[in-house]
Amino acid sequence: MVTDPFDSKVAGLALPKLSADIVVANREFELHHAIGSFGKETRIFDWPGEYEAKNIIIQGIPAFDRPREKESTKKDEANRAMIFMIQLDGFKICHLSNVGHRLTPEMLETIGNIDILMVPIGGVGCLDVKKAHEVIEQIDPCIVIPMYYKVPGLKLPLGELEPFLKEMGIHAPVKEKVLKLAGTQNVPQEHTEYKILEPVD
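The structure corresponding to this sequence follows.
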């Protein structure tokens, strides 16, 4: 499965050569909808609803890239974002894509208990570090993976990782190339762990 394949020309980063049975992406956010490199056999899920393929259950929940109450003119309207709930190999994963607001009670009820939360923290067209902190507390997942922040070579004006680490009180984090979990029994139950993944070369 691939989530939110990005437009390399806009991002300034080379998209790794990928193949996938399933891609989830936000149809209304072109940066996260670079699906052209995937073959016809790949299932694309990019719209709200509940889907199942390859024994994976996916639910797309509509959201926005900023709080809608801040809309004042047509130019400032919030753009649609997509939350994806993924049930895979016994894990419940929540991918927040470019969500930019606190979650509603209805969203939280749909999301439920989460093993792994992938949360944007870059603050441009998505959550900033303080809002990300609030949403993490709302969901209370077992594992948090921050995403969508500035890395070397990125053209987008996103915030750095360090302010998020400071906000969450994380000191000297261990960075990993790959997150490996043997099973749900390896997911922490009494506290939330933060996993910092290194960018793909």
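The chain has one domain: 49-197.
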